Amino acid sequence: MQPKHPLLQKCLKLLESLPNLQAKVEALPYITDNLLADGRLILYGSGQQVEYVCEIKSDITSETIDFIVDYLLHFRQRLDDEQRPLLVTQNLSERVVDRLLKKNIEFIDTTGNIYLNSPITYILVRRQSHSGVTSNITNSSLQLIYVLLKFPHILKEKDFERELAVASGISLSTVRHTLEKLYKLDYLQRKRGDYRIVDYIKLLERWEMGYVESLRSKLLIDTFTPVGKRPFYEIADAIARQAQEYGYLIGGELGAALATDYLRPIGATLHVPEDYRPIFVKLKLKPSPQGEIALLRQFGSHNAWNCDQFTSLVDPVFIHAELQTSNDDRLRETAERLFGKYIAQRANDA
């Protein structure tokens, strides 16, 4: 079975190049009663075999490594005794490699950094990394990346730079600087002054990592909970019903539930206009550090889903990224459904 994900493709080739080892992908994705992972991989060597369950995480930085380590340690606990987790990623820095080694987390990246420590083999390969350049991805860069993911064909427009500036809410000079930056980082290709997305999935992964690590906290106003200790399901209908009147867009678990009709939500993310105070007054919400309802500021001009069926929902790229902030398998499975139904076609058309 040949993987479609570009990171897994590259890393599989690296594994196959190792002496005295054979690699075979058995399942894509890999799903059990209590687990949803990116793939199941078997390594053969010395007359034995070891089973790895793959987790793909792109652009891991020193700022996000603790989150990734905690996730993988929790992930390891849910595997069967004969299974091992394998982190598949790209361009690991020296600091990140050191952190993974310290926690004995096996990994392989697209530049050739490899750590395998199983009963059939021990391999440690460290190569110079260039991942530091990804730190140049700022919040303004992420706002522009979001627009590219929402409108992949905007780069074909005659005045695409100005359209990107309006849609993303950043200046024209920042748009030009960011496009050049994304080109140098191999997220975009350029020919005769025109840009094209190199790999939509890779760009989506970079957006989601950046959303989790920085953009969401920039946009976050506060978290709220219903007054009177009301359960979330009692106000979910009111949130959906009053969205158009108060100009907010629904995302998070509630947005995913409305889009897929699959999830029973226990929270929501509301992307709100500048005058947001009437919203939590009308919905009878109060600030709470553990609140299940998060209010985020909108930016630019195209946060809404361009779909007559979901006029009150935020774009699925936002919802998908929001679901990635949790390690909950039910949310990951919902994210898979959301991607397959609404985002995959954009990737195909990009």
Helix fraction, binned, reads: 40-55%
Cross-sheet strand order for the largest sheet: 1-4-5-6-7-8-9
Q: What is the 3D shape?
A: globular
The poorly predicted ranges are 129-135
Alpha carbon gap, first and last residue: 25 Å
Q: How large is the radius of gyration?
A: 21 Å
Topology (SSEs and partners):
Layout: H1 6-16, E1 22-27, E2 30-32, E3 35-37, E4 39-45, E5 48-56, H2 65-77, E6 83-89, H3 94-102, E7 107-109, E8 114-118, E9 121-125, H4 139-150, H5 160-168, H6 172-184, E10 188-191, E11 194-197, H7 200-219, E12 220-226, H8 233-241, H9 243-246, E13 249-251, H10 252-260, E14 268-272, H11 277-282, E15 285-287, E16 293-297, H12 316-323, H13 329-349
Parallel strand pairs: 5-6, 6-7, 14-16
Antiparallel strand pairs: 1-4, 2-3, 4-5, 7-8, 8-9, 10-11, 12-15, 12-16, 13-14
Helix pairs in contact: 4-5, 4-7, 5-6, 7-12, 10-12, 10-13, 12-13
Task: Produce a short descriptive summary.
This protein has 350 residues and is of the alpha+beta class. The chain contains 13 helices and 16 strands. 41% of the residues lie in helices and 23% in strands.
Question: Would you mind describing this structure in some detail?
Answer:
The structure is a single chain. With 350 residues, the protein is α+β, with helices and mostly antiparallel strands. Helix content is 41%, strand content 23%. The chain is built from 13 helices and 16 strands. The strands form four sheets. It has a seven-stranded mixed sheet with strand order 1-4-5-6-7-8-9, sandwiched between helices. The protein has a five-stranded mixed sheet with strand order 13-14-16-12-15, sandwiched between helices. A hairpin with a 2-residue loop joins β8 and β9. α5 packs across α6.
